[in-house]
């Protein structure tokens, strides 16, 4: 039986791209039994079978409250969301999960004095039509829900002192769990296809440049932000975080250097428009100043690591 001093953490969206790896990292710190993974419809990944994994819907407030009370949760990493491409296919679902779901998470946290991590995204940005400047004016429903979500989180901090923190993750690249429904998914799929077939048809142009990050840096940033003393934070739910920016063409070149004969072709589809609406780079000086953010991976190091791990994973499949 855990004691009240022991942290008990719930991760929503635990079967997702970030959730799988964050659950593993938190279990290493806090012990398997103190980190509860919450999935929705996706089956729990094998790596998460060592600790509690339950299924629930963040839009069902009553059952979510029951889960939180049963496990005496004091900290929630809220990763359940609908990403940009799925969000454009089904904007109503995106609104419902990303905003009504978030509202439930915040309300439960307010009533139980829980700490929260609620991530945002580079998708909060858009281009000003007149000046071309990068501004907080997204053009996707996903981006709209992320900006509104940041504001809602900050409201709960100011009004109710809920300690809620969040990062605007760039596109995340990882090999453990595949991403789904995002615009930056090409930057992961390219590695799988390079190993399987030595070719990839990319759905954005070669000159499309976006901020990206390797998953181990994203996990480190998440844990570092949650570990930072509250008094050091000048922002709460909207910290920019960057580590590298590259074009789809540069990504393909870094793979071609290591896989003989790899070829990438480019056929843009409707995801190009979403990618074009996001900034090439973001300034993360406040994360570096407030909580010492310092990423470890650049494109070449990441490609080495991705290919080495994926070679092993795909051989085992
Ligand atoms: P993901 O799509 O891999 O996982 C999200 C999970 O949410 C899914 O497994 C899904 O089953 C679950 N979910 C959906 N609706 C739900 C509901 N009603 N109740 C409970 N669970 C539900 O997403 P991810 O890539 O791991 O992203 C996690 C968070 O990070 C999201 O807030 C996302 O916006 C943000 N983010 C991700 C990236 C990225 O590149 N992966 C970049 C920027 C921001
Ligand atoms: N990777 C995410 C997406 O493409 C960005 O938030 O939707």
UniProtKB/TrEMBL annotation:
Record-annotated NAD-dependent epimerase/dehydratase domain positions: 9-240
InterPro entries hit by this protein: Epimerase_deHydtase, NAD(P)-bd_dom_sf, NAD(P)_epim/dehydratase
Domain of life: Archaea
Pfam families linked: Epimerase (PF01370)
GO process terms (BP): L-threonine catabolic process
GO MF assignments: L-threonine 3-dehydrogenase activity
Family: Belongs to the NAD(P)-dependent epimerase/dehydratase family.
Protein's UniProt name: UDP-glucose 4-epimerase
Gene source species: Marine Group III euryarchaeote CG-Bathy1
């Amino acid at each position: 039986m855990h004691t009240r001093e022991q942290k008990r953490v719930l991760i929503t969206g635990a079967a997702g791209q970030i959730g799988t790896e964050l659950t593993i990292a938190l279990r290493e710190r806090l012990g398997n039994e103190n980190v509860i993974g919450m999935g929705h419809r996706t089956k729990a990944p094998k790596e998460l079978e060592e600790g509690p994994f339950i299924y629930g819907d963040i839009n069902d407030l009553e059952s979510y409250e029951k889960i939180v009370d049963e496990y005496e949760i004091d900290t929630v990493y809220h990763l359940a969301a609908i990403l940009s491409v799925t969000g454009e296919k089904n904007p109503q679902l995106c609104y419902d999960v990303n905003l009504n779901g978030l509202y439930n998470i915040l309300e439960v946290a307010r009533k139980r004095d829980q700490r929260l991590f609620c991530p945002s995204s580079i998708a909060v940005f858009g281009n000003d039509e007149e000046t071309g400047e990068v501004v907080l004016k997204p053009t996707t429903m996903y981006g709209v829900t992320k900006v509104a979500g940041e504001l809602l989180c900050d409201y709960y901090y100011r009004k109710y002192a809920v300690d809620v923190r969040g990062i605007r993750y760039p596109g995340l690249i990882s090999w453990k769990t595949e991403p789904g429904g995002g615009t930056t998914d090409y930057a992961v799929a390219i590695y799988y296809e390079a190993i399987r077939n030595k070719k990839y048809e990319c759905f954005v142009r070669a000159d499309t440049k976006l901020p990206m990050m390797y998953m181990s840096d994203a996990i480190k940033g998440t844990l570092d932000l949650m570990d930072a003393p509250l008094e050091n934070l000048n922002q709460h739910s909207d910290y920019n975080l960057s580590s590298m920016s590259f074009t789809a063409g540069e990504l393909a070149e870094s793979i071609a250097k290591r896989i003989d004969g790899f070829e990438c072709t480019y056929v843009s589809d409707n995801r190009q428009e979403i990618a074009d609406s996001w900034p090439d780079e973001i300034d993360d000086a406040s994360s570096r100043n407030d909580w010492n953010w310092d990423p470890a991976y650049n494109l070449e190091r990441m490609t080495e690591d991705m290919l080495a791990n994926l070679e092993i994973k795909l051989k085992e499949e």
